[in-house]
């Protein structure tokens, strides 16, 4: 059952009209919404749905700690708010119950901002609760979701923050503590290439960069460029034309192995393809099984 059908069934009649909502004080509105949330969640529980409704005031929104980007897109917030107002069936946000006993938003910051813009009478949102995440897992959750189907990390500041969270939460190491190589790091963080990973590590975590240099013989990179708008794959990159011109899998593999922009371009295509396959509940294509997109439809 769609979440909107549940909302329509239980939403307080007193709040349906703008006049009704305006004459009620804040405490009365919260009481009505809390009763509504409890009733709706009873139905969701009986249906075996993993989603639940939560009041926004019960969710801690700690963007510096859990948001994978530095800036919120006002355009995205406006678009999401209009979608909610038009009755679109939006995906749930993700929240985590951490050791301090509080609920934290870990993915869906733009959607939560959109709900806040709609006013107190709509101060609730549907979410999936994650109970067994450590704080490190919760911090990295947003990055994983953004790499799968979120807004792209376009600015260097956003990519730096996501990279810093990746390192700070220990994802750059294997369970035995051994550091991953820059190529392995870039394979996990699909929004950057190996050379950029090296530059970020040298600038943000110089001690770890020295350890990587000693272990793998990887040279330490120079300082990062000042441009905050630089993208990993330039708009006029020759990678698309290069890869489309190579019809044989072996030729493509050779190009990808020697051309950083070609590698990034191929990863971006694979990520888009897998996002589409996931939407239609098809299996994920692993990198080893992917022979590239020739551009011939």
TrEMBL record:
Region described as Disordered: spans on this chain: 216-244
Entries under Pfam families matching the protein: ParB_N
Coiled-coil ranges (or none): none
Residues in ParB-like N-terminal domain copies: 60-146
InterPro entries (UniProt xref): ParB/Sulfiredoxin_sf (IPR036086), ParB_N (IPR003115)
The protein's name in its UniProt record: ParB-like N-terminal domain-containing protein
Lineage: Bacteria, Thermotogati, Synergistota, Synergistia, Synergistales
């Amino acid at each position: 059952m769609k979440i909107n059908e549940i909302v329509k069934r239980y939403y307080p009649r007193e709040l349906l009209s703008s006049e009704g909502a305006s004459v009620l004080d804040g405490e009365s509105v919260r009481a009505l919404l809390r009763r509504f949330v409890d009733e709706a969640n009873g139905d969701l529980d009986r249906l075996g749905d993993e989603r639940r409704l939560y009041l926004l005031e019960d969710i801690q929104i700690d963007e510096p700690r859990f948001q994978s980007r530095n800036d919120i897109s006002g355009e995205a917030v406006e678009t999401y708010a209009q979608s909610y107002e038009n009755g679109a069936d939006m995906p749930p946000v993700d929240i985590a119950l951490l050791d301090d006993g509080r609920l934290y938003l870990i993915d869906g910051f733009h959607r939560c901002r959109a709900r806040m813009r709609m006013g107190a009478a709509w101060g609730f949102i549907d979410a999936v609760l994650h109970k067994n995440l450590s704080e490190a897992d919760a911090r990295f959750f947003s990055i994983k979701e953004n790499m799968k189907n979120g807004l792209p990390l376009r600015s260097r500041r956003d990519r730096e923050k996501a990279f810093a969270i990746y390192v700070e939460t220990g994802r750059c190491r294997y369970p035995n503590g051994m550091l991953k190589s820059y190529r392995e790091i870039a394979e996990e963080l699909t929004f950057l290439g190996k050379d950029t990973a090296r530059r970020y590590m040298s600038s943000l975590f110089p001690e770890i960069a020295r350890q990587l240099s000693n272990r793998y013989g990887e040279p330490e990179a120079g300082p990062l460029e000042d441009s905050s708008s630089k993208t990993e794959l330039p708009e006029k990159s020759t990678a698309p034309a290069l890869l489309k011109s190579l019809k044989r899998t072996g030729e493509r593999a050779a190009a990808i192995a020697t051309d950083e922009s070609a590698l990034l371009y191929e990863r971006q295509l694979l990520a888009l393809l897998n996002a589409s396959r996931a939407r239609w509940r098809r299996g994920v294509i692993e990198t080893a099984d992917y022979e590239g997109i020739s551009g011939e439809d």
